[in-house]
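Predict the 3D structure for this chain.
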Amino acid sequence: MRALVQRVSEARVEVDGRLIGEIGAGLLVLVCAMQGDGESEAERLLAKLLKLRIFADEQGRMNRSVQDVGGGLLIVSQFTLAADTATGNRPGFSTAAPPETGRRLYEHLLACARAQHPQVAAGEFAAHMRVHLVNDGPVTIPLEIAPA
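Done. Predicted structure below.
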């Protein structure tokens, strides 16, 4: 699975003008299931997200996780993270998982996150969303969990 993680002071996602998810300080996670991914990759991605030390400690060093600081997770599906721009000017998305697999893995990731973390909000799979965020730092980190 592929993810783009942003440390935020606040973030929200809207569909058709309706607020469907929001958090205060925490992580906005844009996520894409890739071909060959399964539940194991979703679970490994979540484990990495929950332990990723990108929040400041008492000395101002990035040394604390979202769990350590009690931050929220806003998890948003975004198949465009699979974009291949190696040739031409139009991105290709052939490396993304098929939509039904992407939906299943996104929902699995959300279910696992909600079971392991107290504050989890989400986007809506395959919807046209508007994501609003205040990137804190800015801190933006790409993650890739390859199939085992």
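Residues 99-116 form the longest helix (18 residues).
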